Amino acid sequence: MVEKTHKEKIERVRERNDILFQKSPNSPLTHDQKLDFKGLSYFPIDKKYEFIVDMKKFEHQSDITIPTTTGDKRKYIRFGYIEFEIDGQMNMLTIFKPIEDNYLFLPFKDKTTGEESYDIGRYLEIEKISKGKFVVDFNTAYNPLCAYNDNWNCSYTPDENILQIPILAGMKKYHD
Questions:
Q1: How do the domains of the chain map onto residue ranges?
Q2: What is the pLDDT of residues 53-112, one digit of tens each?
């Protein structure tokens, strides 16, 4: 099997997202939104927003309560952090782990938030490639489900994950 390029992989994911949003019974879109759905909007794919990073675990992992869009509160552990450089500027993001679950949660805001990207920020999946090493690809950043309608409950982005740079990669704000 031929290895797909970075761009081809991202394009394939985006195509699948559009199909799922349009046709899946689990789509975050309402029936009426699906009728007019023309596809999700993205920044251009840019390899400069893909990083292989070391995740550093916090020596003293503390609990944090993060409010949600419906007024609930979710408990997370401040699990670790990553550092990366874009355009000569070092950046750091905290990785959270839900107290009652076993996945890593990486919400972030940047200089596009509220303008080109969703108001409460975007989320990012990180892929473990070896012990302590992860792929962080902002080209795969996505909107929380509450970006599509108010029936969804999403965690806000904690202040410690607000970047002072624009991340011109990943999903843009949804316009219905």
A1: 43-161
A2: 999 999 999 999 999 999 999 999 999 999 999 999 999 999 999 998 888 999 999 999
Residue with tokens 């904690």: 158
Pairing relationship of beta strands 133-137 and 56-57 according to DSSP bridges:
unpaired
Q: What sections of 31-152 are H helices per DSSP?
A: 31-35
98-109 b/e (C-beta count within 10 Å ≥ 16 → b): beeeeebbbbbb
Residue 45 in tokens: 């794919």
Backbone phi, then psi, for 51, in 5-degree steps? -135, 145
Question: Are residues 118 and 147 in contact, defined by beta-carbon separation less than 8 angstroms?
Answer: yes
The 10s digit of each residue's pLDDT in 95-146 is: 999 998 888 999 999 999 999 999 999 999 888 888 889 999 999 999 999 9
Other Cβ atoms within 10 Å of 40 Cβ, number: 17
Kind of pairing between the strands at 56-57 and 122-124: unpaired
The one-character DSSP state at 160 is G
Sign of CA dihedral 49, 98, 72, 160: negative
* CA distance readout (Å), 141 to 30, 35, 43, 73, 106: 22, 25, 10, 23, 10
Separation CA 79–CA 57 (nearest Å)? 6
